[in-house]
Amino acid sequence: MNQAVLAPHPFGSLITAGELLRKFSTFQHWEDRYRQLIMLGKQLPTLDENLKRPDIELSGCENRVWLGWQHLEGNRLHFYGDSEGRIVRGLLAVLLTAVECQSAHALRRDDPLALFDRLGLRQQLSASRSAGLEALAAAVRCAAEST
């Protein structure tokens, strides 16, 4: 049985953690990372309005953010989302790269924000963006726990 994937995106498949690590390793300044986050956010397809449901809208974020998920074969999870903020869309793109199509077990075991540390992003975020990132990670963990 092949089920249709809701809100497909390139993160985790065409855009991988390894590719992001290579790209971000060339940046010496936060401004370069900031620009790259904006570029990544532009590659995140806009979520259809019918998928921007209140039950997947996260609180604790600086901008409106939606993070939904879908259970796939093999106990893997597909995540999709959107945000009204350019930087938050980029942060969401990095998160999707880290968690897309991972098993529920791996998502429960691993820190969904570890890629942010490896890219040198988390320490540069404002307190409100850090809180939003934690809200995204909590939503990923919740999805993994519910399977």
TrEMBL record:
Residues 22-140 form the Fe-S metabolism associated domain. InterPro entries: Cysteine_desulfurase_CsdE (IPR017763), Fe-S_metab-assoc_dom (IPR003808). SUPFAM superfamilies: SufE/NifU (SSF82649). Pfam families: SufE. Coiled coil: none annotated. The active site is at 61 (cysteine persulfide intermediate). Gene3D superfamilies: 3.90.1010.10. Belongs to the SufE family. PANTHER family: SUFE-LIKE PROTEIN 2, CHLOROPLASTIC, SULFUR ACCEPTOR PROTEIN CSDE. This is Cysteine desulfuration protein SufE. It comes from Izhakiella capsodis.
